[in-house]
Design goal:
By secondary structure, the chain is α/β, with parallel strands linked by helices. It is 46% helix and 17% strand.
Length: 190
Amino acid sequence: MLTFARKIFFIMTVKSIFIADGSFIARTGLKMIIKEMKNFRLSGEAGTLEEFNKNILIAKPDVLIIDHTSADFSSAVIALTNKILPGTGILAVTHGESKETLTGTMNAGVTGYVLKECCKQEIEDAIIAVSKREKFFCGKILETLLIQCTSPHLHCKKITGSCEPLKITDREMEIIRHIADGYTNKEIAD
């Protein structure tokens, strides 16, 4: 737990954000959201892998917002970022994806995941959570991942099909990864 003094320091510290998205319009929209947020600033952006490689180490952001489905970006970029900048929280912001793609992204090490159609408040909440290294996932993302979660023993949270955000524990995240990887309930329990 953070002490009161550390909480105040966190609140007063300006966090930097780097955007990696092949879509100009998506980057512009994210920049507008960031500009309105207190204690956050844009430290850089990239529309291509070349721009990303050139600028990410200079920026050393607290949060990387990435669309790993853009032409130049992938789960491999997320995994590499986690290796070279382990203090950076990673927020994936994409359109709806397949269970396999989501699993690959989670295994690569994203801290949070929201859809591009999520509301402004949810995207802001995700940025704040990821900056604190808290897991944050849009409800629709978890619904896709938990489609096979039918066992009462797993205590899966009810997913409503909405984009409502859900904060999940590390243990729940571990179970979700196993489900997404196709393990049976017995294999997960073992």
